[in-house]
Amino acid sequence: MINKVLKIQEGSPDYPRRLEKLPGRPMELYVLGNLPREDIPTVAIVGARMSTPYGRIQAFRFARELSKNGVQVISGLANGIDSEGHKGALEGTTPTFAVMGNGVDICYPSQNRQLYERIWQNGGGIISEYPEGVSPKPYHFPIRNRIISGLADLVLVVEARVKSGSLITANYALEQGKTVYAIPGMVGEALSEGCNKLIFDGAGIAYNIEVILSELGIFNQERKTDCKKKQISLARDMKLVYSCLDFCPKRADDCLEKTNLPIADINRILMELNLMGLIREVGRGYYIRES
Fold first, then answer.
1. Is the pTM of this model over 0.70?
2. Is the pLDDT assigned to residue 1 strictly greater than 50?
């Protein structure tokens, strides 16, 4: 069992190459476990602490699929989206990493103790620029976000308010020349405003996992083949409803004119397509294609 904290100073051969040329990089890092590998793509998954069930599900799913496809996931161990990102990654095959706003010997928040231990015991690491024994302070967390984005090749924002730590991370990423993606949310929802604004300002739209994998240069042929097989086996009425959908969120009402099916049948088919993984509900009653 690993329990030794490593101190890695700037200029050391062990200092992360992703941070070497970034402005404001930490002079030293403290690591419990391991640092992210340089030869494996890394995605930061960040979002609101007070997240919705939809946001938590998406963070878990994206992290799990990324991890299964050989992508390291990095986040901040906070409640909500961060925690679900770590949990999802632990369901995959690639380690996950947490950057803290306190010493690595302190688990914050304390209720995430089991998750904290699973991260470094399963090949990942707990990382901080603060020495052991330093307690969490409110001003530590916005500053640590530059390390989260700095260690990542791409930042994915799942849910965020317009003024939030997640958008601070996204802004750091843009300043560092990193790619930013956001999961779209419903208009008018406070936790969707930050992501929708990022998309309006030019961030990529993370409408499915393939978008992120493609951005990273990873082609998930197995998943695409599976989706095509499912589409071929669809009944006629299901194909009609499926053909109405694209990557712009639509409701059951939008399928009425094209299908001439009763609204009850359309709703039932949408639920079945969702369970099959061919479409995804991105808001209450709004659906997009998964591939």
1. yes
2. no
